[in-house]
Amino acid sequence: MNWRNHLIKASAFALKNWLITKKRSFHLFEILFWPFIGLISVGLLTRFLGLESKKVEFVLIGIIALSVVQIGQLDIAYVILYSIWNKSLKHEMVAPINAFHLIAGPWAMGVLHSLLVFLLMGLFSSLAFQLNFLSAGILRLLLFFLGLTFFAASIGMLVCALAFYIGGRAHVGATFIVSLLILLSGIYYPIEILPKALQIIASVIPLTYFLIYFRSVYGLTPDHSNPLLWGFVLTGAYNIVAAILLGLSIRNARERGLLSKMSE
Amino acid sequence: MQLKAISVKGIRKTYTSNRRRESTPALRGIDLDVDQGTIFCILGPNGAGKTTLISILTTLLYPDEGEGTIGGFDLRRQRGRIREAVNVASGNPNFTDTFSVVENLNYYGMLYGMPKALRRSRIDALVEMFELETFRHTPFNQLSTGLKQRLALSKSLINTPRILFLDEPTMSLDPQISESIRLCLKELNRRDGLTIILTTHQMDEAEFLSDRIAFLKKGKIMVEGKADDLKRGLQYGEVIRIFYEGPPFRREWFSSLEGILKIEPGDHQITVSVDSRQKRLDPLIRTLMSRPDIRLRDVAILKPDLEDVFLELAKSPH
User: Fold this and answer.
1) What is the pLDDT of residue A33?
2) pLDDT at B308
3) Best mutation target, B17, B52, B96, B99, to test chain A (most A CBs within 10 A)
4) Contacts of B260 (CB under 8 A, 6+ apart)
5) A193 touches chain B (CB under 8 A)
6) What letter does residue B31 receive in the DSSP assignment?
7) Where residue B70 falls among pLDDT bands split at 50, 70, 90?
8) Mutate to test the interface with A, among B61, B73, B141, B156 (most CBs of A within 10 A)
9) Is B273 near chain A, with CB under 8 Å?
10) Is B108 within 8 Å of chain A by CB?
11) Positions of chain A with pLDDT lower than 50, given as ranges
12) Which A residues 88-147 touch B at CB under 8 Å?
């Protein structure tokens, strides 16, 4: 089998994602509406509280990062969740595809979706709340964005792995993981204000390091040795673990007959 | 020697429920050989294990035990190659509901790694074959049951499979569409040498389509063979129905005759199952004609249908 063949199979899931986005206004709503509602309401809250500009920038960067991760993981998770909701999973799993095809296509689509949101939210924050988003420079913006999307891939894979175990209810898992990120990875506040035990958990979440890195560009966080490196190393490890778990959950579904059950 | 499309031995599968800690045996040692280019039908009552068997043969489900080859590829070690060589369609088909006929076919073509030009020509051919031209851009959730089934069959042929698995393909379709699908399957088998494995509840469909039939019950193959052989093998032989005028039938009339398998008396008629029509018709008629109170009106030779065999097997305890 050649690379072209793999590419076509992975593209199938990207195409599926694209068609779902195009045809389901609900999905487009999730991609654009909620992130902007979050950004605007938090931006207005900072204005109401009369926060100084540095703190406003701190919070807005957190909101943008969370939105990128949220959208990236949703695109991956939805490929499986839609198949389960449409009861068509067995037709896809009877085809000669593997976990790589399942994830790579939607991840690529998620990168496009979240890039759109990243740029729009950055632009909106600059205009409405004076966050000088582009002052970080293209390279730093790119590294920050890539880190977030790679991390989103690991969450998306975990949700997919969960979906192969418990079916469509895995959607709740996606919300659960994102809620934990809000609490633990320093979206709205520095992790130093968390209790010690939670700080330890925060220190193993890649998003924490990507936020420290990007905020440091604006002089918003204290110096940290190589946050970007830590972020990518942890993300790499999470992706490997998530890929293994996904592979195991697909195998488990094939052993227990769950693929047929989810398609009835 | 005829090449085998499927050759499996000792396939076993038990479903276990973690929550209730129950195990349900679904297949209890299946041995199956299917020749290439034939149509093979798996019959059986609900819960017999038909869908489980198809799921295992398509690698959607892994067996607990057993080995063999599908399309010449090892069932355990070459699952990817098997998936490339087979495809499946089931009754009650489900696809992405908002995708049109062509979008669904294109998507599945991509899952099989087909390049764009090949996908396009294949989709055009399938849309024509299954008369879906008018519905090319109709979303799946707006198609009628019959059209959904036609789309399912088109999808199952998208990768030009060597072995096609059909799980009750004409379920809930009206007789006219069912008939056209049967003819289409027969033609695919004849023209392309496509091996077809199908499960069905419809005996006439099994008899019309299949080269060989297996009866599955409680996870085991009870009998397997050609339809006519199965009927003969189960001693259904041939049935003679005699219409007469005279008193109600009494068993002693035929007590001295040999080769009688079953007698079903009726209103001025007797239905007799015999091992051989040629041997038994004459003595039966002579016996009746020898009685002064009986006048023969008509004699009909009936063939038992597959449904009788199916019902008999479904009733048997093992």
Assistant:
1) 85
2) 64
3) B96
4) B254, B272, B273, B274, B280
5) no
6) E
7) very high
8) B61
9) no
10) yes
11) none
12) 88, 90-98, 101
Helical axes B116-129 vs B101-111, angle rounded to 10°: 130
Name which of B86, B107, B116 to mutate to probe chain A: the one with the most chain A Cβ atoms within 10 A of its Cβ. Answer: B107
pLDDT digits (tens, 9 = 90+) for B277-299: 788 889 999 999 898 889 999 99
Chain A neighbors of B108, CB-CB under 8 A: 91, 95
R_g of chain B computed on alpha carbons? 24
Contact B5, B165 (CB under 8 A): no
Q: How many CB atoms lie within 10 A of CB B110?
A: 27
Taking contacts as CB-CB distances below 8 angstroms, the residues of chain B near A11 are 110
* CA pair distance A103, A98, nearest whole angstrom: 9
Phi, psi of A27 (to 5 degrees): -70, -40
Tell me the ipTM for this assembly: 0.89
Structure token pair of residue A31: 């991609």
Question: Token digits for B233?
Answer: 């093998």
CA distance to partner chain B, nearest, from residue A157 (Å): 19
Closest Cβ–Cβ partner in B86, B99, B111 for A9: B111
What is the pLDDT, as a whole number, of residue B117? 96
What percent of chain B stands above pLDDT 90?
51
Chain A residue with minimal CA distance to B15? A256
pTM: 0.84
* b/e code B210-237 from CB counts within 10 Å (16+ = b): bbbbbbbbbbbbbbbeebeebbbebebb
Q: Which two three-digit tokens encode residue A22?
A: 């195009």
Average pLDDT in the B40-52 region?
89
B60 touches chain A (CB under 8 A): yes
What is the reported pLDDT for B261? 81
Q: Are B190 and B112 in contact (CB under 8 A)?
A: no
B220-240 mean pLDDT? 76
Measure B58 CA to nearest chain A CA, in Å: 7
Q: Please provide the size of chain A in residues.
A: 264
Q: What is the pLDDT of residue A27?
A: 74
Higher pLDDT, A237 or B231: A237
